[in-house]
Structures are given as C-alpha cells and as structure tokens.
Amino acid sequence: MNAPEVRRHDDADVLVGDVASALLDRIEAAQARGETPDIGLTGGSIAEELHRELARRAVDSSVDWSRVRFWWGDERFVPADSPDRNAGQARAALLDHVSVDPANVHEVPASDQVATAEDAAKAYSTALREHGAGFFEVLMLGIGPDGHCASLFPDHPALDARDAIAVAVHDSPKPPPDRVSLTFEAMERCRAVWFIASGEGKAEAVARALADDGSVAETPARGVRGDETVWWLDEAAASALP
Ligand code: 6PG
C-alpha cells in the first residue's frame, strides 16, 4: 500500500482534461501490452464531464474502444431506462459515441431486471468473479460532501461488508435510496483508484479523507487504500488540504 498521491489543477476544466489524457494514455499502454483493460466508471456530475471529454477526445486517440471492458464502481437500483442510472449517463455521454463491444459493457442489473438490490449485487459479484481476480486497471470514484465514495455512505452498515465484492445499499442519504456498490475489498484489488473531485463543497471531505487520522465510518473515502490511489482535484476541492 502506497501513500495516496494528490494532483492539483487550476480549475475543473483543466482537471477533467488531465484526467481524460491520463486515462486514455493508461488504456493505450495496457492495449500495447496486449491487454483488454477493465475500467470502472462512476456516477456523479464530474464523472459526466469526464465522459463527455473522453468522447470529444476519442476521435484523435488511438484507443481501440472495442478492447476496453467497462464496469461501474456503484449503480443506482432503478429501472434500466431511468435517467438516474449511472450506466445510462455513461452511455449517453461516452459509450454511445465510441465503438465499444456491447459484450464488454458490464452493467449492474437494474430493478426491472432482478427483484432486489441484493440479487443485483450477487449477479454483479459473480460477473466480476468469473472475470478474474485482478479487477480494474483504473477504478474512478467521486467523493460526496459527506465523504462517501461509490455508494458507501458514512455510518452505513454496507461499510462493514466482508468477503464480498459488491453489496446492496438501502436508505442511501443521496437519492435514490437503493443502490449497489463495490466493497472496499474489491476496490483494493484494483491496480489504480482515481478519486476525482471539483468544487469547494468537496474541500472538507477531501481533507478528512487524506488526513493522517480519522475514521472510515465518518469518511468512507478514507477506507480506499490501494497500491495506487490518486486524488485528482481542482484548487477549490484541494483548498482545505494543509
Ligand atoms: C453516485 C456516485 C457517487 C458520486 C459522488 C460524487 O452514484 O452518485 O457514484 O459516489 O460519485 O456522489 O458525485 P458528484 O460529482 O455529483 O458530486
């Protein structure tokens, strides 16, 4: 486990541009090694900006999109065509604009496809397990003003999930209430975890996540400690760091 790395950027546009370049480089490098990289997408507003930027840059990049596998760090348990779906957002902003192989897009099952969020978590875990142990080349995550990441919220029972890859989440303080999230255990198996945060509203949570001490129950983003954890921040989100 290495100490998290912090990369600061002047503003949200520069931040999104840098993350997009770094992600495209990383995918190209993996493909040059003959791999089909697994990328974990996230929900939220900064992720949507990133997906749009990736779609804009796709034309000039040499990424072979049909050789990228897409997964999600978390998903909202709503019908497949709901505008609240993280997968729907990623499709509209990115996946519909590049030539992905549909067999490589691994969505968490929706509420009109399986009965419960527990069933969705189980099916998603099975898909990940069948796929292999290494999990993602890069998992992208946002952070909430309360310190949540993916759908792991402060003082929530889902934080304690053990021996699990994905967990059902109910009573989420961020709507919608029912969700599916990767667990810390799964996140730690990713080659890299990239947090992306923009805006003053995230500053306190970012500072708590990166502080030397503090609790994971209070700030779940503290619980993600992989081999390579990078915090991509704009100056506003970094403003409470020492
Ligand atoms: C979701 C998320 C969530 C999100 C953060 C940051 O499903 O809502 O995956 O963890 O990434 O809440 O979202 P914003 O960028 O919108 O603040």
- CATH topology: the name is Rossmann fold
What Rg, in angstroms, do the CA atoms define? Answer: 17 Å
Strand order of the largest sheet: 1-9-8-5-2-3
Q: Termini, distance in Å? A: 22 Å
The amount of beta strand, in percent, is 15-25%
For the record, the CATH architecture stands as: 3-Layer(aba) Sandwich
Counting DSSP E segments of at least 2 residues, the number of strands comes to 9
Global geometry? globular
Q: Tell me about the biggest sheet?
A: 6 strands, parallel
**Low-pLDDT segments:** none
Question: How would you state the average pLDDT, rounded?
Answer: 96
- Total helical elements: 6
- List cofactors, ions and other ligands: 6-phosphogluconic acid
Give the SSE order as H and E letters.
EHEHEEHHEEEHEHE
Helix content: 25-40%
Query: Which structural class is indicated by helix and strand composition?
Result: alpha/beta
- In CATH's first tier, which class applies? Alpha Beta
How many distinct domains? 1
Domain Glucosamine/galactosamine-6-phosphate isomerase: 11-231
Pathway: Carbohydrate degradation; pentose phosphate pathway; D-ribulose 5-phosphate from D-glucose 6-phosphate (oxidative stage): step 2/3
InterPro entries: 6-phosphogluconolactonase_DevB (IPR005900), 6PGL (IPR039104), Glc/Gal-6P_isomerase (IPR006148), NagB/RpiA_transferase-like (IPR037171)
Catalytic activity: 6-phospho-D-glucono-1,5-lactone + H2O = 6-phospho-D-gluconate + H(+)
